[in-house]
Each structure stands twice: as structure tokens, then as C-alpha cells.
């Protein structure tokens, strides 16, 4: 299922965080949340994920229940994605995974945030075949899809991307605050598996 709303809509954070929490409530039990923010700090248009990751790291650092991968200092991108996903699969076996990425779309959809109830296919707009990520994902449409997608990513407003990142980070913080009390304790999860 796809939920979408423009990032400037005052209801955007509440609307998408409610949809995210609803999706979580239909899933099997998890013990933690992992947020994987995809992108690079080399192009403004592809920095949405790392900007979200850096904001979340500031807000949620020290939380034993929420783990952030992909920041401006340590981005997760095509070159290190397989290694990062293998590490997450090994270290966070019972995690509810939320993926975040920028994407290109039709001109009239620029600024739209999409919450999609399925794994993210990163690199799709650049015709890259990369591993799918997450139980659910959030995409921000940052610019127009066209024949010169690499150039579009280079010439996207950094201010615009930063504003979208602020809204996405609010969505994830808000939904995490609601999800954390519903997470299974690790001891309970281990006894659940052994029984």
C-alpha cells in the first residue's frame, strides 16, 4: 500500500507516522527498530537519506531500541550496501527495518513523501540493481525524472532536500515513540523462539 502527502502539508508528519505505526502493528513481534538511510553526501539530490540519518542520530543517539545506519559522516550507498545489510542481518535479527531514500518522479509530484508498505528497491531511478531493504520504506521525490538523472541529482536544491529531511526525521521519531512500547523484550523474544 502507498501513502503519500506533500512534505509542506502540516498534517504530513502525523499522517505518515500513523500509517507507519499501523503497518508495524500488523507485523510479527520485533525487539528493535533499524532505520537504513540510503544515499551519498556527494550530490545534493542524493543526500536526503544521509541527512535524515544524521538528524535521527542526533535525536535518538543512545536509544537501545532504535539503530541508525546511513548518515552524512557514514553514508550507506551502492559501494557499501551489501556489507552494511549483511552486518544488520547478523546484528539485528529481530529488527523492524525502515528504509529511507530520495527518488525522482514526475514534475508535479516533486516534494511528495511516499510511505510504501514493502521493501525499498534502491537505485531504481538510476537503473541500478541493488538488494531490497526493509519491511517498509519512505521516499522523498526530490526532482524530475528524466534522461539525465545524474545531472538532476547534482542540481537539486540542498535547502529543499534539508527541509524534506526534517519532516521525514519527525515522522520516524514520532512513530518510533509509539512503536518502542510495543516491542518485545529480548528475553521474551528468546523464550518465544525456544518454545
From TrEMBL:
One Pfam assignment: DUF1256
InterPro entries tied to this protein: Pept_HybD-like_dom_sf, YyaC
GO biological process: proteolysis
GO MF, any single term: peptidase activity
Stated name of the protein: Spore protease YyaC
Protein keywords: Hydrolase, Protease
Keyword Nucleotide-binding applies: no
Species of origin: Paenibacillus agricola
